Amino acid sequence: MGKKRNQYTKEYEYEAVRLMVEEGRPNSELARELGAAQSLLHRWKKKS
């Protein structure tokens, strides 16, 4: 059996992007805190 994928709400994605953009938080630091992959955070930022 594979790993269960996390599903994130739009609000969660928005808040993560806000932390990166407005507060200048590094992608790597934020990924560790949130338990999400750096590539996922990059995708969210690119999408918004």
Q: H/E order of the elements? A: HHH
Shape label: globular
Rounded to the nearest angstrom, the distance between the terminal CA atoms is 33 Å
Largest sheet: none
The helix tally amounts to 3
Q: How many E strands?
A: 0
**Rg:** 11 Å
Strand content: under 5%
Give helix % range.
Answer: 55-70%
Low-confidence stretches: none
Structural class: mainly alpha
Q: Kindly give the count of domains.
A: 1
**Averaged pLDDT, please?**
91
Give a verbal description of the structure.
With 48 residues, the protein is mainly alpha-helical. The chain has one domain (10-47). The protein contains 3 helices and no strands. The protein has helices spanning 10-21, 27-34, 38-47. The longest helix is centred in the N-terminal third of the chain and has 12 residues, at 10-21. It is globular, with a radius of gyration of 11 Å. The N and C termini lie far apart (33 Å). The model has no long low-confidence stretch (mean pLDDT 91).
In short:
The chain is 62% helix and 0% strand. It contains three helices and no strands.
